[in-house]
Specification:
Layout lengths: L15 H30 L6 H5 L17 H15 L4 H12 L14 H37 L7 H15 L1
Helix pairs in contact: 1-5, 3-4
């Protein structure tokens, strides 16, 4: 006879702390792997020359604070001309972005650089997600236990009435009914 393992259930003997640790570790692994894959794909797909449309989507107009692709201010036109001149020099997208930061400051970038305080933009959302999952992992089993125990506990709403009080209640209710 072939023995099979039962499917994974949350009823397995797993403490909430182990479940939280497992979820947190899984989230960190996924985030780390995602970042490594993004960096590897960016390095693999980096072309020797950049295009204006590719750069316009990633930088901002410094005067109107809109993406350069939609901005129509005189400053946006000047930025586009500067980018065209850098493309004509044969610079890569990364080099052009570095020149834009030197020329206009870090406000020109659509995404903040991942250093210093700006690093919190990249760390906080996954951390908040991990904390939320941990809270759910702890709270859900408690809520399920309460919901299972709830109907049995609420069926007895107090001590039973003595017969004299029950008769009086019936008389008073019959006056209102009819």
């Amino acid at each position: 006879m072939i023995r099979t393992r039962p499917p994974f259930t949350l009823a397995a003997p797993m403490t909430a702390l182990k479940l939280v640790a497992l979820i947190t570790a899984g989230t960190l692994i996924v985030l780390t792997a995602g970042g490594a894959l993004e960096a590897a794909s960016a390095a693999a797909t980096q072309r020797p020359r950049a295009s204006l449309t590719d750069i316009e989507n990633d930088v901002m107009c410094v005067s109107c604070r809109e993406p350069l692709a939609v901005a129509q201010s005189p400053q946006a036109i000047a930025e586009r001309e500067y980018i065209r001149s850098l493309i004509a020099q044969g610079l890569t997208k990364r080099q052009i972005e570095q020149n834009l930061v030197v020329q206009y400051g870090a406000a020109v970038l659509g995404k903040p650089p991942a250093s210093g305080f700006n690093l919190s933009v990249y760390i906080l959302p996954p951390a908040i997600l991990a904390v939320g999952l941990a809270i759910l992992a702890i709270a859900l089993p408690r809520w399920r236990r309460r919901s299972r125990a709830g109907p049995a506990a609420s069926s007895a709403c107090g001590p039973p009435l003595d017969p004299a009080e029950a008769d009086r209640l019936e008389r008073e209710l019959s006056q209102f009914r009819g």
